[in-house]
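On to my pick:
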Amino acid sequence: MKIVGHTDSDGEDSFNMTLSAKRAASVKNTLASEFGIKANRMTTEGKGESEPVSPNNTPEGKANNRRVEFIKLWIFMVQRIV
């Protein structure tokens, strides 16, 4: 599973990239420690403010953009026949 962190547009771009990465890592750590999901089954990424789902000009819009997404990754096994 891929965990992607996002922020609103407040603050500098570099700060928001770091914050979003830390947000995703915090969720990963909680899932591992509290729910027993193996850490090696999860990856994290921070997107900063680059992918808003709402306009950042209202408090509600900013709250919507401060989020974490979960993306299910599929791994396909290919068997070679000789």
Remarks:
- Strands lie at 2-5, 43-46, 68-71.
- The longest strand covers residues 2-5.
- DSSP finds two helices and three strands in the chain.
